[in-house]
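tool=predict chain=A
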Amino acid sequence: HANVQHVIAYFQPSIDKESKTNATQDLPTAGESDCRDPDPPDGGSDEKASCCLSMTVHSLLQRGHCVSVERDLPHATLEDFVQDSCLVQPSDCQNYNRQVCVLVLQVLMGLHHLHSSSAAAAELRPKEILLVWPGRQRCKGGEVLERDGQVGWVQELWRKYGCPRVLVTPQSAASAPQALTSIKCQIVALIHFCLRPQETHKDPTLSVYRTGLLHLSSLLQSENGPQMTDIIAMLQVLLWGPRVSLSGHGGSSSVTAVQNWLTVKRALLVMKLAEVGLIQDQPGVDWEDCMCLKYLPFTDSETVMGAAMQLSNILRMHQV
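tool=predict ok
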């Protein structure tokens, strides 16, 4: 699944006496330069890069390290996203809250896939939820492009390469399975952690995204709360529509209106993707467009209408 971290291969070290001796001899002495050392003032970055590039799976195993080969190379974590947003004076709280919706939706989609596959995710720690920008070129000329570490670097990645893909880590087979109530509590904590940077800033637009997220977190804490699929549908409607004015008050006419809306939105999205394909020197399709492309064609119109009506009632209740 696109939102689950995938380990292609995993290697454990198998060290005998001879390999231990060789590994010890290969380790740099106190006077030698290690690739983890800072760059010398006379410009030793090339030596550092060549040292790192000379490392192989075999050499790492000889030194006693476990090595895993993964499908994705992450650029940041959810914790990086929140901390970076705390340092930036928010010019658009609505946009940040919408970004949180996109990230939380992907976390839930990854959890739902693992649950439907009789698996589970590891504990949802912000620093272990990974963000990958599919359109970003990490390697250039054999060297890994490092982040600049400046204030706003995560938001700059989002601005330049679009929405990131979120990866949750599967639970190891040796770990005890988590109870559903524990998973829900972790999701609630994750939502509040992401919304924390906006607590000190008043949003004059009364962000519908923040309102929707807070209400969903309250539903997760109730004993008879909605299913994971219902919450996913509500977040999708919150992000991409339709709004309740389209669905009316229920009935066959409302279902027909939603079907027509989905048809029009599908056509518009296909046109948008076609235009992106014609433009050269583009980082690629925005990952949110890929998510929306999956939402529009494969979502049942009655499910969309039900989620839209419920979301409308929530927003109307908070506006009173």
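The two ends are 41 Å apart (CA to CA). Residues 7-70 form one domain.
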